[in-house]
């Protein structure tokens, strides 16, 4: 057992891999926060998607009126879906990139830019900030991921 | 070749990693089942999203009426999206957690609780069970993921 | 440092792992293209989801009319969500499958079929091609993922 464990922990001892683990966890936890923000707006705006969620407001018509969409809830949900669309590629491509043995400085640059861009994107979406704040922060995270994808394909290409 | 393969299979021989592989595969296959359930409800409720999907029902107005939303279809789709929002963080954070070399018992506890919570969540959503069944099962899976994220950041933090 | 780096690059030197890295990156970049196609249709069809996105069209009613859904935009968004639902399982199960030490030929077959099926699915969705083109391409990618999941569970099962 301990021999195998030592082998495994070699991966997590590598600085580039540790940086990936840190930033991947940060953006995933940030994405998870979107669920809490959605729940917060659903409860304060009284806007639910399922009949069983409104049962505590009584029966029949009095509860049915809370089965509705709300602009604030929908905004958070769009931000959450945009996270999924962008953080899933980072998760996969970033992991493969970390395994191509990049320079620590370059790797940190990619991970920090991506995480910073996604956090900015969330604020730009939720406040909301005037465009092109949201568009630009989205594009910066996108470009960081494409740059890592290029490195992965250049290093590992095997079709 | 065989030397490299041996190195690779060391990862899959590690018990914590095997447990991660097992539970990650189980929750991903469970999520994939949502596609089949959506298809089942789309066909039995005759509720489609694309004109080309209703072509077999004839042309013009007779087919157009099947381009509609259906409460059962939308329910499964919400469950599917909730899976994506929660299983993606588990996939990434769980993998990194498995690589931090946790105690086998603790790791199994996290993986089993997460998988059990997500399976319960699916039943709670699709039957549906009265609240707070769905809310609680969601929260239990969420907490298991956050607990693993904490361990990853404590072990690997490199900003 | 260099010793650890050497260990890490052993993973990316493995041919099966390189094949996984290549095809995972290809399907993730393909999925990322859906964001650009959505943006293209939102701009050309003038159909936006957020008030701040229409500010450049003026204020009040003149801008508000561009806050609307458009059939082409919604079609791309459904394709994008279908990608997420299918590429996330491939990302996780494919990685674990690559670590079970499969035969290179068999692994390449799985990865190529999956990537080919998803690229076909995108064309079938966006053109759109008459059914069952989209349904079949979806099913082929689904079957390739289930086949890899079976191999992972057969090799690594640890409940």
Give a brief outline of the structure.
The structure is a homotrimer of 159-residue chains. Chain A has 159 residues and is mainly α. Chain A contains six helices and no strands.
- CATH architecture classification name of chain A: Up-down Bundle
CATH homology-level superfamily of chain A: Membrane associated eicosanoid/glutathione metabolism-like domain
Class of chain A, according to the CATH hierarchy?
Mainly Alpha
Largest beta-sheet details of chain A: none
List low-confidence stretches of chain A: 1-6
Order of helices and strands of chain A: HHHHHH
Mean pLDDT of chain A: 92
Radius of gyration of chain A, whole Å: 20 Å
Question: What is the oligomer described by this structure?
Answer: homotrimer
The best one-word shape of chain A is elongated
What class do helices, strands and sheet pairing of chain A give?
Answer: mainly alpha
Number of DSSP helices of chain A?
6
Q: In angstroms, what separates the terminal alpha carbons of chain A? A: 36 Å
Number of domains of chain A: 1
